[in-house]
Design brief:
By secondary structure, the protein is an alpha/beta fold. It is built from 14 helices and nine strands. Helix 5 links the parallel strand 6 (157-162) and strand 7 (182-186). The radius of gyration is 23 Å and the shape is globular.
Length: 430
């Protein structure tokens, strides 16, 4: 029996009244071409949940380069239900948790196909040739997953992702605009350079004057106690087994520079900032709680694949050193990503190209794809959000008042949430 006939007969059988449609799901997954190592997972939300591996070409244009196994998690709601394709920008380990539930699949009672990004955790090719870690290749990964699992789930498809995953949602639509019916990227930046420039301006205006003053005062107080801070930093990083390619003096500088970005990104509260009279230990503990030095740790950093992408084509942000110039050890932070965060073998070898920015920008400008963009008002990544092109019916941008990087549909004001869900419902019924 051919696989095509097998699937057709299965659909006929599983949709008969009273049939327990998931009885043979594992077998069906094992029948999909290129899918292997199907493993049952526990779930508190879904009838069935599986971890599978999908064979992907390292270079989609040249099979001779080799292949790798990409980790994919499938959470089943029903063959007659829509399917949410999660375009994760990092690793997928957290989605293995039995309690994990993605927002859209919960709201829509939908299936979930969660794709770990290439070059992260278990989805890293061997050898790790950085040449093939590109946005375009990641889009081909998603296209292959989409085409593979459509054999099981023929209803509407929605792509979604958070932060870098939201970026991935956007670039995936730009490369394969017809793969899904609509998309919901959350807090997705569209950066135009490796140090975009808009984030520093954003941080000078976000919140109230009193809040910004409290943050700057804290930064200055930490740096003014450098001699007391450095032993604490050394003890902390030694205990955490962190190593750096720059002196701890400079690590402290970068933690302090990162502090306001991280503070607003995650919606911290200014009343939590210790007073200038607080003990140095208290100041230090607050600093690393918001801006952990692990972010600047040397290779192998858990973020190293992201840093490669950011330096090459996703873009990133810079630091405003001017208000702290008299207290900093570093002369300039320009080029910090390439200098201290890339893998050793790529230092001074990665040049940024804005081709991806232009591709996504032009796709959104020249078309009107069904996409709902979610952002938070105080999230620095909102500084580089997608443009609000006038006259678009389907491209819709919603900004959560006072919202951070945790902005979602569920925590939007009720009227905005209702409007978003109404639109999604209409698209599902078309």
């Amino acid at each position: 029996m051919t696989k095509r006939i097998f699937f057709i007969l299965f659909y006929v059988f599983c949709l008969l009244p009273g049939h327990a449609e998931t009885d043979d799901l594992r077998h069906l997954l094992e029948q999909l071409e290129g899918v292997s190592d199907v493993e049952r997972l526990e779930s508190t939300h879904n009838q069935e949940k599986y971890l599978v591996r999908v064979r992907q070409l390292v270079n989609p244009r040249d099979s001779s380069v080799g292949s790798f196994m990409q980790r994919v998690i499938v959470a089943h709601a029903g063959f007659d239900r829509p399917t949410v394709l999660v375009t994760e920008g990092y690793g997928a380990a957290y989605a293995l948790d039995p309690r994990y539930q993605e927002e859209l699949s919960e709201l829509l009672d939908a299936n979930m196909v969660f794709v770990e990004h290439r070059y992260f955790l278990e989805s890293t090719p061997t050898p790790c040739n950085w040449e093939y870690l590109t946005a375009e290749n990641s889009a081909y990964d998603l296209h292959h997953v989409n085409q593979t699992f459509r054999k099981l789930y023929p209803q509407k498809w929605i792509s979604t992702g958070i932060s870098k995953g939201g970026q991935t949602t956007c670039l995936y639509r730009a490369y394969f605009p017809d793969d899904v019916d609509f998309s919901v990227p959350y807090v997705a930046p569209l950066n135009r350079n490796v140090e975009d420039g808009r984030h520093e301006t954003f941080l000078r205006k976000v919140g109230t004057r009193e809040q910004r003053k409290a943050i700057l005062s804290f930064q200055k107080e930490v740096l003014s106690r450098r001699e007391e801070m450095l032993p604490l930093l050394e003890k902390y990083t030694t205990r955490k087994k962190m190593t750096f390619r720059i002196p701890l003096n400079e690590v402290l500088d970068y933690c302090v520079l990162e502090y306001p970005f991280a503070f607003w990104q995650w919606g911290a509260q200014t009343w939590l900032i210790p007073s200038s009279e607080a003990e140095t230990q208290v100041l230090f503990e607050h600093l690393v709680a918001i801006s952990d030095p692990n972010y600047f740790a040397d290779d192998p950093s858990p973020y190293r694949s992201f840093f490669v992408q950011a330096a090459r084509e996703l873009g990133y942000y810079g630091y405003d050193t001017e208000p702290l110039q008299d207290l900093l050890v570093i002369k300039s932070s320009k080029g910090y990503l390439n200098r201290i965060m890339l893998p050793h073998e790529l230092i001074d070898k990665v040049t940024f190209s804005d081709a991806l920015y232009q591709k996504v920008y032009q796709f959104l400008k020249d078309n009107d794809p069904k996409m709902i963009f979610i952002y938070g008002e105080i999230d620095p990544w909102t500084a580089s959000r997608v443009p609000d092109f006038k006259g678009k019916k389907n491209e819709q941008i919603y900004i959560q008042p006072g919202g951070s990087h945790t902005a979602r549909i569920n925590n939007m004001p009720e009227k905005i949430k209702e409007k978003i869900l109404k639109q999604i419902k209409e698209w599902l019924e078309e």
